[in-house]
Specification:
773 residues; alpha/beta; Rossmann fold; five-stranded parallel sheet; four-stranded parallel sheet; 16 strands; P-loop_NTPase; Novel STAND NTPase 3 domain-containing protein; nSTAND3
Length: 773
């Protein structure tokens, strides 16, 4: 049958659609209701913070979009919004369930802020119940009561594509055939089945909303962030939404060349998704060069209706950006198309934990034990969504101490728990994981082991046949089996931190380390090992420690990188970082004896110096008396240039420079800034830096931050005249509003749950976690 109105899509399957809204938590349900009001009623909606609000769960302030003739269901304001959620699939809303609400409503009406009362619920509402609820609300003084039940929400979801794009978890809550046409259904079904767990636990973050808006408005988005922060999950949900909203054919390309080859000018609606566009673990210059060459074709595809999503680790994109010739690619200048997905609010973290625990296999009693400590789990640093996934699975939590400290450690120090867990696995499972660890590109699941792999199995004590069977049994918990475009199928760790945990286990298996080291490529060596002494680890033990007996072997491999690659390449940069941060003094001196020209490779660094590895290594060599004075002074001069040309404040704030600089060096740098920068500061702010720095989209404007650091430094040095000149430039930035201040939203939004009194509205997101399990 066909349904029209409100931007509806074609319903394929018979019957009224019904989404499993009871499987959502109360907070996720509230967010869905907010999305309904934003996308369907066209109102600006903001989640109302849980606080003691004297009985007012939510209210609208501002101009309500007046209903058109076709939208006569829209009420007149001012109004109060209320969400009622139940985890029972067959619950029916009754008047008695709302008894706590009616006294609040009377107070709100008396205060003149409740002309209309809108109740949204996922429960069923009978005709008799709706009439009784409306009568009670009218008796409280409400002029326009409106009761919208779970079926209304399901119908609205099925009817509104824009809503589904901004609330994409609904794709995992119902029968796709009831909301998508044939072509879209096939595309979306394939995508959902390929990652059903990701769909069912996905949380709409601010980063996702920005990405979806960019895709709608611009047809392009670049997702940036550190490893394992959700770039690929966001790209997946955008792909599903594109199949729904525009009927897009999904193409997951590996390179720009493959994207161009597969673009069909006669196929208007195509969705292209390229993961790790500029390199997987390091910047690969040939990939960036290909993008430079192919960008005109890519932009032609976008102008003709294609949608393009790229992902990249932030540090890789920062290396690629200078080569992209952004002047020829205006989109990369625009904040709207570049989205950093790394940062998550506390509320988003809590929802991620909630969703993974709801989707996991923990029994209700275990969830009840965990509930008091889950807010602390969300505050753990660093926060990894993958740790939340494991928290929901019994396979990972057998030895978990259900305390605040125990759960926080589980979230922020997963390698220690995993190391203990790996020790409890049988020998053949350990051998299977060791084989995957020694295969950076994934272990081919043809299971035709070479001699080195057989040696690994034998040294652990396993057998070839049993290890082969263990590989398959570990899929879903520790491993995943993936099929690439070229048809190659391979086993890999399900998440990078599972690999790190295995490294923690390997540290206590010294007989395996030499053969594991031989199996690593250079990138894996630099990224996943260290040569520090026990107790010196800065990475909390997640990397594989190389014993002193193998230092010379590692030094020879690093020296070969310096011989093979020019200064400034990603390889030498990674090697410098390794020597500066991942090597003991013994290893560093051993390398210097093997490669005495090292200091000459450390003085050609670029801004921002805080992001460069050279100063750390220079400071270490200086402390050891191994840095010639000529190279130290060359580094000081370079810092002076950057302090003036780029407002680089590292010489003031960074610890390595405090160790490298003498008092006379600092006076030299102060004088450089005073004489070469300050006279042209205001003009430079207006012209050179404003366009490139102001619109970076960061939480704190980097230019203003640098000026504040300089101002404080000159003030502390007693140079008040220079300090006042810097303050004048800062005032220009603020007075001319070059730094934007976000405007507030117009709607406050509230919630309470069926059968749960909400006199204390500071309700935990996890309060209903163990209900209905």
């Amino acid at each position: 049958m066909e349904v029209t109105g409100m931007g509806m899509g074609r319903v394929v399957a018979p019957g009224s659609p019904r989404f499993a809204l009871h499987t959502l938590g109360w907070r996720a349900f509230q967010d869905l209701c907010a999305a309904v009001l934003r996308q369907v009623w066209g109102q600006s909606v903001q989640a109302f913070a849980d606080s003691n609000d004297a009985g007012r769960d939510g209210a609208f302030y501002g101009v309500w979009n007046q209903p058109s003739e076709e939208r006569s269901d829209l009420p007149a304001g001012p109004f109060v919004l209320q969400c009622k959620h139940t985890k029972s699939e067959d619950s029916t809303l009754s008047v008695s369930m709302l008894n706590d609400e009616f006294d609040k409503v009377k107070r709100l009406v008396k205060r003149g802020i409740c002309n209309t009362y809108v109740l949204l619920t996922n429960a069923r509402v009978t005709g008799a119940s709706e009439e009784a609820i409306r009568q009670r609300l009218q008796a409280c003084g409400v002029m326009h009561p409106l009761v919208l039940d779970g079926q209304w929400l399901s119908d609205t979801i099925a009817a509104n594509r824009a809503l589904r794009m901004f609330a994409p978890r609904v794709y995992g809550l119902g029968d796709l055939s009831q909301i998508l046409d044939d072509r879209s259904y096939c595309q979306a079904s394939i995508l959902v089945e390929s990652a059903r767990e990701q769909v069912s636990t996905f949380v709409v973050t601010d980063a996702y909303r920005k990405a979806a808006k960019s895709l709608c408005d611009r047809g392009f988005v670049l997702l940036l962030g550190e490893p394992a922060v959700g770039k690929s999950s966001i790209a997946l949900m955008l792909a599903i939404s594109a199949a729904d909203s525009w009927g897009c054919v999904n193409v997951k390309a590996r390179t720009s060349e493959e994207l161009v080859q597969r673009w069909n000018p006669h196929e208007k609606d195509q969705f292209f998704w390229v993961d790790d566009a500029f390199g997987a673990v390091r910047h690969e210059r040939h990939l960036t060069d290909s993008w430079v060459r192919d960008l005109p074709h890519v932009m032609s595809a976008v102008k003709n209706g294609a949608r393009v999503v790229l992902t990249s680790r932030s540090y890789i994109y920062n290396e690629a950006r200078p080569f992209l010739k952004t002047y020829a690619y205006p989109l990369l200048h625009e904040q709207e198309v570049t989205v950093d997905v790394s940062e998550m609010s506390g509320q988003e973290r809590r929802q991620i934990i909630y969703n993974h625990l709801s989707a996991g296999d923990q029994p209700p009693e275990k969830l009840s034990e965990m509930k008091p400590y889950l807010d602390a789990a969300a505050d753990a640093e660093p926060f990894r969504p993958e740790s939340a996934r494991r928290l929901g699975l019994r396979a990972f939590t057998g030895n978990l101490r259900i305390t605040r400290t125990g759960i926080q450690d589980f979230m922020s120090r997963p390698h220690q728990f995993l190391s203990d867990l790996y020790s409890q696995l049988d020998i053949d499972s350990q051998a299977a994981l060791a084989l995957v660890y020694t295969s950076p590109l994934g272990l081919s699941n043809t299971l035709s082991f070479d001699s080195n792999q057989r040696t690994v199995i034998e040294r652990i004590g396993g057998t070839v046949g049993a290890t082969s069977r263990s590989l398959s049994s570990l899929v879903g918990t520790f491993l995943q089996s993936t099929v690439e475009v070229n048809g190659r199928s391979a086993f890999s760790f399900k998440h990078p931190t599972l690999r790190e945990g295995f490294a923690a286990w390997l540290i206590n298996q010294p007989h395996l380390i030499p053969i594991v080291l031989l199996g690593m490529d250079d990138s894996t060596l630099l990224d996943h090992t260290h040569c520090l002494m026990p107790g010196q680890e800065q990475s909390d033990g997640v990397l594989l420690r190389i014993p002193g007996s193998l230092y010379r072997d590692v030094a020879l491999r690093i020296a070969s990188l310096f011989d093979e690659w020019p200064e400034g390449s990603c390889w030498t940069g990674s090697a410098i970082e390794y020597l500066g941060e991942k090597c003991s003094d013994e290893m560093l001196m051993a390398f210097l004896a093997l490669y005495p020209s090292l200091p000459s490779r450390l003085t050609d660094f670029f801004s921002s110096v805080s992001d460069c590895p050279e100063p750390v290594l220079l400071a270490r060599l200086h402390r050891k008396g191994a840095l010639p004075e000529s190279y130290r002074w060359r580094a000081v001069e370079k810092m002076g240039q950057l302090a003036v040309d780029k407002l680089d404040t590292a010489w003031i704030t960074d610890q390595p420079w405090k160790q490298l600089l003498t008092e006379s060096d600092r006076e030299f740098l102060f004088d450089q800034v005073r004489t070469c920068l300050i006279p042209r500061l205001e003009d430079a702010v207006r012209d050179d830096w404003t366009s490139s720095w102001i619109r970076e989209g960061r939480h704190e404007n980097p230019l203003l931050h640098a000026l504040r650091v300089y101002n404080r430094a000159f003030e502390e040095a007693g140079d008040i005249d220079t300090s006042k000149k810097i303050e004048s430039a800062m005032e220009y930035l603020l007075e001319d509003k070059l730094i934007a201040v976000p405007e507030g939203q117009g709607v406050l939004f509230g919630y309470s749950a069926l059968g749960i009194p909400d006199a204390d509205s500071t309700r935990s997101l996890f309060s209903d976690l163990d209900e209905g399990a």
